[in-house]
Design brief:
4-stranded antiparallel beta sheet, alpha+beta, Pseudouridine synthase, Structural Genomics Hypothetical 15.5 Kd Protein In mrcA-pckA Intergenic Region, Chain A, 15 strands, 7 helices, 2 domains, 27% strand
């Protein structure tokens, strides 16, 4: 239970409105750990015993945070605003979605999976490389790719003086003089795949993030979004448990 004011605690229990809760409290009908409390704004510590007319009131079960999976199209930037006047992800989202944070930035010419949530703490945890939340990309590069080159990239490169974390890269198929590769990363440095590819002499023709935190785009079209189920959100929460020793 979060630290709430007493009248908000009663409202969260979904049995009274705020006005009804305030009336009950002022009438002296509410006890906290055995003592009458007549101030609606009094704070309630986690684990406190709350009674109304002698009957215990259990805290409301915490609702999972709302999270959406969004297929970012090419041509949008992930910044809240852009000094060059380019259209942003937030410009493209439905107006009734409200204020959300994005998890997993993608550059202007990349497309694919972003997570959106109103929960700022969750967005920071999902983006924190210590929690090893995996992101999977399909990357089309010019020409054929030698297996040895991919193996060297997997161990980490130093494109700007900072070594990238080991990752997984496999060649999937050749198509019209180009090769589709699949990259699995657990960190998200700025334009990381593009900088790694450049350091290895590879030219990227297309970059799509197809999965984030175990959630794949599936048939979600560019520009569309869907709200995650409670089970999917629970999976994301589990992915951030355990800190630096979490899932790798």
């Amino acid at each position: 239970m979060a630290d709430l004011s007493l009248h908000r605690f009663l409202k969260a229990a979904r049995r009274w409105s705020v006005r009804e809760a305030e009336r009950l409290i002022r009438e002296g009908r509410v006890r906290v750990d055995g003592a009458v409390v007549d101030r609606p704004e009094a704070r309630v510590a986690p684990g406190a015993r709350i009674e109304v007319d002698g009957a215990r009131v259990e805290p409301a079960a915490a609702e999972p945070p709302a999270v959406w999976l969004y297929h970012k199209p090419v041509g949008l930037v992930c910044s809240r605003s852009d000094e060059q006047g380019r259209r942003t992800v937030y410009d493209a989202l439905p107006a009734d979605l409200g204020y959300v944070f994005s998890v997993g930035r993608l550059d202007l010419m990349s497309e694919g999976a972003l997570l959106l949530t109103r929960d700022g703490a969750l967005s920071r945890r999902l983006a924190d490389p210590r929690f090893h939340v995996a992101k999977v990309y399909r990357v089309k590069v010019r020409g054929e790719v030698r297996p040895g080159l991919l193996s060297r990239l997997e161990t980490g490169v130093v494109p700007d003086g900072v070594r990238t974390r080991p990752c997984r890269i496999v060649a999937e198929e050749t198509e019209g003089g180009a090769t589709w590769t699949r990259w699995t990363l657990t960190e998200g440095k700025n334009r990381q795949i593009r900088r790694m590819a450049e350091a290895a002499g590879l030219t990227i023709l297309k970059l799509v993030r197809v999965e984030i935190g175990g959630l794949g785009l599936g048939t979600l079209a560019a520009g569309d979004l869907r709200r995650l189920t409670d089970a999917e959100v629970a999976g994301l929460l589990r992915a951030t448990e355990g800190g630096e020793h979490g899932s790798r």
